[in-house]
From TrEMBL:
Residues 8-111 form the SnoaL-like domain. It comes from the Bacteria. InterPro entries: NTF2-like_dom_sf, SnoaL-like. Pfam families: SnoaL_2 (PF12680). This is SnoaL-like domain-containing protein.
Amino acid sequence: MTSNLEIVSAHYAASARGDLAGMLAPLAADTAWTEAAGFPCAGTYIGPEAVAENVFAALAKDWDGYAFDLERLLDAGERIVGVGTYRGTHRVTGKSFTARVVHLWYLEDGVVRTFEQVVDSVPVVEAAQTLPLR
């Protein structure tokens, strides 16, 4: 049986190679995927299709080279924590960013039930803005 750590690790490996189907494979039909308030894709999306459209497609549309660099995975059984850094360049402004991020995964019966992003969204928002934040 594949462990929860292996399932999440496979998601990140798929992300690194640009394999959307592989990234979505461990999500349950009713997975609740939450992007942090203040982040460009903020909100909670239910199911793989909603995640693909509202998160991954939206990021690909607005950012060049958008990526997550995984630093470490922490195994807490049903809960897996991914720690790393986002990076990318906004297609309109040409500004690049890096931002620290933590991903909180909850898995049950071999599928992702919930995902929550905790991110320093300020660098991302600043890179997307044509005017400086006040």
